[in-house]
Amino acid sequence: MAILHENYALKPYNTFGIEAKANYFFQFDTVSEIQSFLDDNTLDNVDYLILGGGSNILFTDDYEGLILHPNIKGMEIIEENEDTVLVKAGANENWDEFVEWAVTKGYGGIENLSNIPGVVGATPVQNIGAYGVEACQTIEKLDAISIESKRQVEFQNFHCDFEYRNSVFKNEYKNLFIITHVYFRLNKNPEFNLEYGAIQNELKNYSDVNLKNIREVIIKIRESKLPDPEVIGNAGSFFKNPIVETRFAEKLLKKFPDCPNYELDNTNTKLAAGWLIEQCDWKGKHVGQAGVHKDQALVLVNLGNAKGFEVLKLANDIRKSVILKFGVKLEMEVNAI
Ligand code: FAD
Ligand code: EPU
């Protein structure tokens, strides 16, 4: 049932654990509920924000507007052939439970994305990725509601302009479409992606390489590096890994030969933001209750009762020092609101 809350506490809805409130919070269970809400309420002059699990959001203040929270559930196989299944999942299905379900059924393609917080509806937005795999490799299409026309629109994969931690939903269609369902094409005879050395090393302790063991290894590696938001508030990597011209990377490497770098193509190279931040001596540091995680410099943390603007201030100070030392601009991955 759709519910409109007023003056609603957002702490349970952001993994940074920031205390903030929204003037209005509208939660809906079905596509028709949001369509009739939009029929009755024009959002032309209202600030609004679509919110999933809040694991990639930083509230820098109370939200003086309306939050739209899809509570759409459901998971069904809508097509099956000898090699693949097409699974339709509702926006508010928990992502990691979805991965676990797929792994248990023997459907491959998303096992490397195990243990990423958040819900299915947000996975296309920044095209979640980990350990050599991105969501766009299995997302076939998605359904969304246009806030302007209130109509349901289907986006095929190629309409989404997927890139590293990016899609059309972070750019020209930001906040214009509410993703209600995502369709994943999963493989019944999966080819495993084991390009990360750490995964291969851990798998040596297992007698067999299969979906279940890969998932187990990934969860283990992630738990050893990333803070659990239930214990320390955070939103995963705060910045994207910067992509620079290879010519620039080569110059940088002459000065800093240890700088981790991954050549993407003939002209572009990805650098490791965590390394750049650590070299600027930020790792483990904190300013008030806003800090840089002691084991992963790319993760900013709320050590207790940090305010969102304090985390943002820390992020800006980090960006300044990385520019000064390396001439590299860090772009935020987290959505500061
Ligand atoms: P939210 O934070 O609620 O929203 C994120 C963005 O999507 C916002 O702009 C929001 O407006 C928009 N949005 C949400 N739902 C919808 C919808 N239905 N329709 C339209 N727009 C919508 N990310 C990775 O890619 N790889 C990782 O390995 C990874 N590891 C993480 C580890 C930790 C410990 C944490 C806390 C986060 C990590 N993340 C990672 C980031 C985060 O989990 C993902 O970005 C996730 O997809 C966010 O999902 P969410 O439901 O919490 O989205
Ligand atoms: N590094 C340091 N110091 C640090 C952290 C990292 O020197 O404090 C170095 C590491 O030694 C390594 C390199 O940086 O050489 C990369 O580190 P890591 O493998 O831990 O990955 P990452 O670049 O920090 C990225 C993603 C993660 C994803 C992992 C695994 C981005 C912005 N982050 O992290 O995604 O889970 O790879 O694939 O691309 C997220 O997006 O929220 C996220 C957690």
In short:
The chain is of the alpha+beta class and 337 residues long. The protein has 3 domains: 68 residues, Uridine Diphospho-n-acetylenolpyruvylglucosamine Reductase, domain 2 (2-Layer Sandwich); 151 residues, Uridine Diphospho-n-acetylenolpyruvylglucosamine Reductase, domain 3 (2-Layer Sandwich); 104 residues, UDP-N-acetylenolpyruvoylglucosamine reductase, C-terminal domain (Uridine Diphospho-n-acetylenolpyruvylglucosamine Reductase, domain 1), CATH 3.90.78.10.
Please provide a written account of the structure.
By secondary structure, this protein is of the alpha+beta class. The protein folds into 3 domains: about 5-70, Uridine Diphospho-n-acetylenolpyruvylglucosamine Reductase, domain 2 (2-Layer Sandwich), CATH 3.30.43; about 75-225, 2-Layer Sandwich (Uridine Diphospho-n-acetylenolpyruvylglucosamine Reductase, domain 3), CATH 3.30.465.10; about 235-335, Uridine Diphospho-n-acetylenolpyruvylglucosamine Reductase, domain 1 (Alpha-Beta Complex). It has 7 helices and 20 strands. Strands 6-7-12-10-11 form a 5-stranded antiparallel sheet. Strands 1-2-5-3 form a 4-stranded mixed sheet. A hairpin with a 5-residue loop joins strand 10 (about 140-145) and strand 11. Helix 3 crosses helix 4. The radius of gyration is 20 Å and the shape is globular. It starts with a strand and ends with a strand. The mean pLDDT is about 95. Uridine-diphosphate-2(N-acetylglucosaminyl) butyric acid (EPU) binds near residues 131, 225, 241, 274 and 333.
